[in-house]
Amino acid sequence: MNENQKIALLEKKIRTFTATSALHLGFAHGTSGTSSNIEFPEALLCILWMHRWAIANESTFRQFRNLLRTDIVFEVQQKRRFDFYNPVWLRKNIINSVVKTIKVLVDDNTKTHLLEKYKDPKKITTRLKASLMHYLTTEIVKNLLWCGPNPKSLLPQGSDSAKKKKQKKNLKEIDDQLRINLSTLRDSNTDNEKKRLLPITYVEAILASIPNIIQANIENPVAGGLFNNILKDNPEQGETQATWKDGTSWEKFKIYIPVTTTNIPGVASEESSVRKPDCSISTYFKSVLKGNIPSKLLFLQPVKKGKDKKTNEKKAAAPKIDVAKALKAVESIKGTIEGIKEEHVRDLLFKKIDTICEICNIEEKEVVEKNKK
User: What is the pLDDT of residue 222?
Assistant: First the structure.
């Protein structure tokens, strides 16, 4: 097939797109879990996804043009500059983050939280998803134009106050995790799709965290329901229930990031019990870069809820751990870690190994010998 034939084929396929077609389905795109019947090269779908957002109005089109500038300059100093406007980076960071967030907010709540605000959520679901998707993409691009794809931290210079020490600690822990992710990606044996999606910059970590934090807070609400903090002040349903009230515009739809960690398992110990204000997307970007967000919250992975089992079904017994084999594996891993040059990375990995041993009730060889004596 020559170039002209390829172009003709693509033109034929693109005419099958409708105004409401989901151009890209994020993590699930191309898997058996998707329902899209669009047959088109994924790289081009990523670019079309961005184009659809760009042509919504004059403001987004202007942002889009700035994003494409070859001489683009960011307000925040970059660690290392690279060409981030490509299908791979767009899919991994913008599209995946936005699509997953909208799924968490809308698709997963049509029979629960959405009923708190809308009389008939099904009639408004498509419009709600499009509106929230537009808002979140606009906010992400706005912040990308401000801080770039690979910014340095914004930790202010000054006295070593208690607050600054905590900010330094948070940023150090975030940097350590990003280095571990980078090392994993460089591993020649890394062929797992999820591992290839690991964040390796502050911005990538921020974008990956947005749907995870929101999901954790919906499942463990810190105050009221979905519309009291995350989607507060969103427009009301119109009289026909398939539209919005008169005067509604894109700007009326907002998404806030709940950064209170009181009710989030595994993170609550990092924060006080005082409720923090839910922050805008821009404030969240700044908070991470200033070290105001703990690494446990930034890299939070919500616990998946298992399907309810029948009452008469017996739970499978937990497999027994071969302590001898486990200790041998621990010693081997620690020996490998000893070869890492960076001391703080070694310390972090040793702590993680110790935590796993504690969870599995595996005692180190030295401790076992001491107890025998």
Answer: 54
Rg (CA), the chain: 24
The model's pTM: 0.74
- CA-to-CA distance for 132 and 136, rounded, in angstroms? 6
Q: What is the mean pLDDT of each run of 10 residues along the chain (373 residues)?
A: 78 67 56 55 84 91 93 93 89 92 88 79 84 94 96 82 90 94 78 74 96 84 68 82 77 87 56 66 96 92 58 48 78 82 80 77 54 43
Q: Which residues contact 352 (CB under 8 A, 6 or more apart)?
A: none
Parse the chain into domains and list their residue ranges: 3-298, 323-372
Q: What is the DSSP letter of 243?
A: S
Packing angle of the helix pair 42-54, 121-147 (nearest 10 deg):
90
Structure letter (DSSP) for residue 245 = P
The tokens describing 52, both together, are 């659809």
pLDDT at residue number 228? 78
Length of the chain: 373
Phi, psi (rounded to 5 degrees) for 201: -135, 165
Q: What is the pLDDT of residue 275?
A: 59
Rounded Cα gap, residues 295 and 171, in angstroms? 8
pLDDT at 172: 94
* Residue (of 80, 55, 79) closest to 65 by Cα position: 55
Amino acid in the structure at residue 17? F
Give the separation between CA 153 and CA 77, rounded to whole angstroms.
9
Distance CA 95, CA 36 (A): 16
279 class by beta-carbon count within 10 Å (0-12 exposed, 13-18 middle, 19+ buried): middle
The values of phi and psi at residue 195, to 5°, are: -65, -35
b or e along 23-46 (b: 16 or more beta carbons within 10 Å of the residue's beta carbon)? bbbbbbbeeeeeeeebebeeeebb
pLDDT at 19: 59
